[in-house]
Description:
There is one protein chain. The protein is α+β, with helices and mostly antiparallel strands. The protein is built from six helices and 15 strands. The strands form four sheets. Strands 2, 3, 6, 7 and 8 form a five-stranded antiparallel β-sheet that branches. It has a four-stranded mixed β-sheet with strand order 4-5-1-9. Strands 10-13-15-14 form a four-stranded mixed β-sheet, with no helix packed on it. Strand 11 and strand 12 (138-140) form a beta hairpin.
Amino acid sequence: LQLGLLFVLCFFLFESGEAWSVANITINVFYPSSGLKPGQSIYLRGNTAGLNWSQGVQMTQLNENQFTYLLSYKVKAYAGQTLQFKPLVNDITYSIGSNFMTILEEDKTFVSIYPWFFTTAGKYQVLPELYYAPQFNNTRQVVVYTPPSYYENTLKIQTNVLVMHDGQNLFNASTSFAGVAWNCQDTINELVNEGKIDEVLIIGIYNTPNRINEYTYSFADDCGCPGPSGGEGDLYLDFIEETILPAMAVIILFHLSAAIKLTQ
């Protein structure tokens, strides 16, 4: 009887300790305070573990560019759940884009995000420099689309980089073939604002009269194309990786390693 009572007591203490086990996760919001008006602050709303979508909690400003909130939750009740959350300016203006998400775990200590609140459209610009391709002994222009957050939250590193060809056709009808642009910026702006995709930075490389030769890997002598008919696609990728991406990394904030993977 005594052993039985001891077992029950130990089991009760174990269960009670597990039930009261608490984990903490620090949510860090990096956003330039220069983008806020005097007296404004950052709040946080979410779907679980003490957060809700009706009223936010004020975050603590650690320095000029960082706001933080320590979220404590019972491990047994919340571990394994997906926390969806969003920062707001003054608990009124939500960050743009999809909800931020993280899995609540017993040993997860922090999550960092780089939101933006006021800019709904990205911008594109044709860079003034002509970029020389030593592989082909020719030059071309480059157009760059920077996503909505680029100028608002300058702390954010752009890791989603899309290299596109036929750059003169991407954004502007006045430079495009037959006067018809693909208007990539409109599609991306809409999908980002609706929370359907993450932001993406586009590097658009203009084509040249040597287009068919540069864009294809196999030589064809019967395609009816002027000049050489394909076979130098590998050299074109070398040009992107060795010339274009390093040049863009100097003037645009993105992870070069992430972009290079797109060419491999």
